[in-house]
Amino acid sequence: MCEGLASRGHEVTVLTGLPNYPEGEIYSGYGGGSNRRQERNGVRIVRSWLVPRKRGVAARVANYYSFSKAASRLARKLPGDFDVVVAFQTSPVMMADPAIAYARHVGAPLLHYVIDIWPECLLSGGVSKDSAVYRMFARVSRRIYGEADRLAVTSPLFIDYLSDLLGKPVDAVRLPQYAEDIFSSMPDKRPEGYDPAKINLTFAGNVGAAQSVKTIVEAAALLKDDPAFAFHIVGSGSELDACIELAGELDASNIVFHGRHPIDEMPAYYAASDAMLATFSASPILGYTLPRKVQSYLAAGKPVLGTLVGEAARVMDEAGCGLRCDAENAAGLAAICREFAGLPEGARQAFGAAGRAYYEEHFTKQKFLDTLEGELRKLKGTRHTDHARSQG
């Protein structure tokens, strides 16, 4: 996103943390104060200290708050001549605080790009709506979302949620995420472990609790006696070890865990796949979201087999790009794998072509940057509002 704006002639500085996701440890080359200032493809990068994510609730909370506090202090020291400040907010919602700190400090207008909605995200972690923790973060979220001069959302369902949370109609621009421009040419060379005689089904991305990759493992186990199928997990994350252990327990020898690979190597994995797997946990929050994985699968022109809910399910149905069942339904996933395998090659290719056409219509990088650039131009020359300060 930053590099895209820079390529269009804008001056872009990104304030971010030390890289530590998804492994949870500070990446090599960034410890001890190294590489706190960088430049990459026209983007100036300023990195704030933070506590690495590691494992467990306590470490994650420390990671969340350390970045919010340290980066907010650093934001107030940045030059005061930026026209607009953008908060790119995944989880937690407090990661938008440094953008707010800068906007308040110099009066620059704030575009808040909402990728994860809070406090709803807490429900997927076992926090109940009637708990003190949920109520506290509801107050925090209202303050942070209420501070924005303009809200941008990835899904139209976010608008309804934010309107309910803030207690007033929200006028937000829809800005769905795009896939990287890496699928214009698909390599012929197959990665190791892909047998062209089999139906190769691939999950690509973060292996975390929200992705419910264990559903793939369980579905693979149900199909382990059918030599037609090979399942592939390409990625890393907090649940990878648990999924590998589960595959061993279920004797699911038809799964290959490839680990994490650089994005420029990913087209080879997509090209070698007959279909891509999109699995998500049965969490209320995921009904609101359209994870970027879906756009990547559509951009690659590959059929999608999914266990989906909400917005992702709607997009898949509208695109006509594959087959789906309910979230966390391993038996259902195994059944649609069998159904897919029984389709003629032309029908499979039609799924992929429909997905690519839908991507071209709705999710291209150019469309994303056109919309974003237009919103930033509207904000340029205005001043950050004071309305949220009276809310505490």
Describe the structure.
- α2 packs parallel to α3.
- Mean pLDDT is 90; it is low at 387-392.
- The protein has 13 helices and 13 strands.
- The strands form three sheets. Strands 10-9-8-11-12-13 form a six-stranded parallel beta sheet, sandwiched between helices. Strands 4-5-6-7 form a four-stranded parallel beta sheet, with helices on both faces.
- The protein has helices at residues 2-7, 57-75, 97-106, 132-146, 156-166, 213-222, 240-249, 266-271, 292-299, 310-319, 330-341, 345-362, 365-379, and strands at residues 12-17, 37-40, 43-48, 85-89, 110-114, 150-153, 172-174, 199-204, 229-234, 255-259, 275-279, 304-307, 322-325.
- The two termini are 32 Å apart.
- The chain is globular.
- The protein has 392 residues and is α/β, with parallel strands linked by helices.
Number of helices: 13
Shape: globular
The amount of beta strand, in percent, is 15-25%
Structural class from helices and strands? Answer: alpha/beta
Whole-number mean pLDDT? 90
Brief descriptors of the model:
single chain, 392 residues, alpha/beta, six-stranded parallel sheet, four-stranded parallel sheet, 16% strand, globular, disordered C terminus
